[in-house]
Specification:
About 20% of the residues are buried. The protein contains no helices and 17 strands. The chain is an all-beta fold and about 170 residues long. It is about 0% helix and about 50% strand. Strands 1, 2, 5, 6 and 7 form a 5-stranded antiparallel sheet that branches. Strands 13-12-16-17 form a 4-stranded antiparallel sheet, with no helix packed on it. The chain has a 3-stranded antiparallel sheet with strand order 3-4-8, with no helix packed on it. The chain has 2 domains: about 60 residues, no CATH class; about 90 residues, Immunoglobulin-like (Sandwich). The protein is elongated and about 65 Å long.
């Protein structure tokens, strides 16, 4: 959204480069020296640019937006909680780029116990019980697994990592 004195006056597509600098192609009605403010609204983040002078016609360099706390800089698999657990656990993670995310759970011999297909996810923090992956302690056919050590891996785009967890009865 483009804002003037806090009121939406238009919409533009905002894009970012790899360094975190954001750009918008403004409509021709804006002139060099006009002051604009841009608000970004997406399902996974919100943010506002400070007031910015228009520097010419066409693509405008808006500078860095204050979204760094909302989009992780790196993809990571975090420790499940609770651990040890019975009967269920949550597996938190964060992803820095859109990706298809899959978590696989293995027994100590390396046999696949369960696959959690989380689908195509946007960048963000998937940390709390409403967003983290949930495992109910059951295998692919719905049986409760035995007590012991299990390993879980995440595949998110080209990223892969593993951790261990303990089931107790």
């Amino acid at each position: 959204s483009l804002l003037r004195r806090g009121v939406e006056i238009g919409r533009v597509e905002v894009k970012a480069d790899d360094s975190g600098v954001w750009f918008a192609d403004l409509p021709a009605r804006y002139k060099e020296g006009d002051i604009i403010k841009v608000r970004v609204e997406r399902p996974d983040c919100r943010g506002e640019y400070p007031e910015t002078p228009v520097t010419g016609i066409g693509v405008q360099n808006l500078g860095p937006i204050r979204l760094s706390d909302l989009i992780p800089k790196e993809t990571r698999l975090l420790a499940n909680y609770p651990n040890p657990f019975n009967p269920e656990t949550w597996i938190p993670f964060q992803i820095s780029k859109e990706a298809n995310v899959t978590i696989r759970i293995f027994d100590p011999s390396g046999r696949l116990i369960r696959t959690l297909n989380l689908g195509h996810l946007r960048p963000g923090f998937y940390l709390d019980r409403s967003k983290a992956a949930h495992w109910d302690g059951r295998n692919e056919i719905g049986e409760r697994v035995a007590s012991g050590v299990y390993f879980y891996t995440i595949q998110a785009g080209g990223f892969r990592d593993s951790r261990r967890m303990v089931v107790v009865k």
